[in-house]
Design a protein that fits this description.
161 residues; alpha/beta; 6-stranded mixed beta sheet; two-stranded antiparallel sheet; 3 helices; 23% strand
Length: 161
């Protein structure tokens, strides 16, 4: 099995976004992760999207918003551990050699679910991690995610009440 590293991270600030749907919460973080990784987005071979109560096909909607649809996208719903479960799937895909570069999305809304009507509740931080077998540059943010041995959870935070 190959070593796995986080090569880029994107995140939006924790806060209330009453007029923003889950797709619009996710795509800026994806764009940030790709920029932070310093890679061409066409190098992404698959996407693992974790969301709790986000509705159908959140990963496809986020990637479509960026014009990056058409690649394998796996949506993971596992209650409060959806994002960490998506991360685990991404790590296994890279470690096994199935893919060289994957994107893991963790996007959740505490409160109302789904994409419409707009979210009117407090949201968790949105963390997106681009994973590659390439060595990662020193980055304080990526040190909290995967580095060679794997582990960590994008998004993090407590479960909603």
């Amino acid at each position: 099995m190959k070593g796995v590293s986080v090569i880029g991270v994107g995140m939006i600030p924790f806060g209330k976004y009453p007029d923003t749907n889950i797709t619009d919460l996710g795509w800026p973080a994806v764009k940030g992760a790709i920029k932070d990784a310093g890679i061409d987005a066409r190098r992404i071979q698959a996407v693992y999207s974790g969301t709790a109560r986000g509705g159908a096909m959140v990963g496809q909607r986020i990637m479509g918003r960026l014009g990056l649809a058409g690649l394998p996208i796996v949506n993971v719903e596992n209650a409060c551990s959806s994002s960490s479960s998506a991360m685990a799937q991404g790590v296994m895909a890279v470690a096994s050699g199935t893919y060289d570069v994957v994107l893991v999305i963790g996007v959740s809304v505490v409160g109302d679910s789904g994409d419409e009507p707009p979210v009117s509740s407090l949201t968790r931080p949105k963390t997106i991690k681009a994973i590659s077998t390439a060595p990662s540059a020193p980055n304080a943010t990526s040190a909290t995610g995967l580095r060679n041995q794997g582990g960590g959870a994008p998004g993090g935070g407590p479960c909603p009440p």
